[in-house]
Design goal:
By secondary structure, this protein is an alpha+beta fold. It contains eleven helices and eleven strands. It has an eight-stranded antiparallel barrel. Helix 8 packs antiparallel against helix 9.
Length: about 325
């Protein structure tokens, strides 16, 4: 899963930047913001008893999440988590191979573990109960995860990225999800209860600190931003189209370069201009899910539910494992 996200979606997963709503339009995000999980500084692990004598510890190395987060009203927050069970790592290749097989996670048939929240309620102070549905191996169960908010919305001191944080733990039962193993391993050696630990650092990038690569050729993102400031969004969009047609080898036309320019505009709440460049992005890079997702975010912020759904549906078709599309589509359809 990580290889899927890393190439381009990571560049374009950003927060929601609210703008002044046009007359008659309502921000469908309700002032909440889109956060992704900083997987390099988050943790999803478990322990399970072996023969009642020792703990076997493991982690999932590949997971992603999208949090629609409201700092003032966390109970209005919602989350979708997508986990790749094939990324399980217990420190034993033999054991991991067994866990990926049909006897346990059956990763070939069930390539995703999904959790989606249904309700978040305040328990006390910074402690919350996150209710939701967990699907493992095609089986869905309702669970409740006690979570503690460890970090309110704040900009980090290094790059100015907006951060949020939380941790929690829950005990799951293997048999509830048909993670049985064979008669020997499943019944005689491995405990039924599995202790799951979660540590989350959410991030909304500060794209002003992202570099545009103009070392060898002028970055098309830099050209786009200069054209927007000089002539406005429509003229800038047309300039990008003309350069791509007439001088495709004279500029750095990497999709991520245009993506940085778009996210900088969104960060400054210049959504109309960002939308003009997003239209170009979808034309030039139709297979890149990030352009479709960011267009969906803009339309959601501007209150156009139909267009937002259409854009996120396309993003999901291109990246089925993408947690943002899953989360935004269920929110928009409610």
């Amino acid at each position: 899963m990580r290889s899927t996200f890393a190439a381009f979606a990571l560049l374009l997963v950003s927060a929601s930047y609210a703008a002044t709503d046009p007359p008659g339009k309502i921000d469908l995000l309700g002032g909440a913001e889109i956060f992704r999980i900083d997987t390099s500084h988050s943790y999803l692990g478990f322990t399970v008893k072996f023969l009642g004598m020792a703990d076997v510890r493991g982690i999932f190395r590949d997971f992603g999440a999208t949090i629609i987060y409201d700092d003032d009203h966390p109970e209005r927050t919602s989350v979708t988590v997508s986990i790749d069970p094939a990324s399980i790592d217990t420190g034993s290749d033999f054991r991991d191979k067994d866990l990926k097989s049909e006897k346990f996670f059956d990763v070939q048939k069930y390539p995703q573990i999904i959790f989606q929240s249904t309700k978040i309620e305040r328990h006390r102070n910074e402690h919350y109960l996150v209710h939701g549905k967990l699907t493992i191996k095609g089986i869905t169960r309702e669970i409740t995860i006690p979570m503690t908010r460890t970090l309110r919305r704040v900009a980090d001191q290094a790059w100015g990225n907006i951060r949020i944080g939380g941790n929690g733990a829950i005990v799951l039962t293997r048999h509830d999800f048909n993670l049985l193993g064979n008669d020997f391993w499943g019944d005689k050696t491995i405990a039924n209860n599995v202790n799951v630990t979660i540590e989350i650092l959410g991030s909304r990038p500060n794209y002003e600190r992202w570099s545009l690569d103009s070392k060898d050729k002028p970055s098309i993102g830099e050209v786009a931003l200069q054209a927007v400031d000089a002539s406005g969004g429509p003229a800038a969009a047309q300039k990008i189209r003309d350069l791509k047609r007439d001088k495709p080898n004279d500029y750095n036309f990497a999709a991520g370069q245009l993506g940085i320019a778009i996210n900088r505009l969104m960060q400054k709440r210049r959504l109309a201009e960002a939308l003009e460049l997003l239209n170009v992005g979808r034309e030039l890079y139709p297979e890149e899910p990030g352009f479709w997702a960011r267009t969906g975010e803009v339309y959601a912020t501007l209150g156009d539910r139909e267009q937002a759904i259409r854009m996120y549906e396309k993003a999901q078709a291109l990246l089925p494992a993408g947690s943002e599309s899953m989360e935004m589509l269920r929110r928009l359809r409610q």
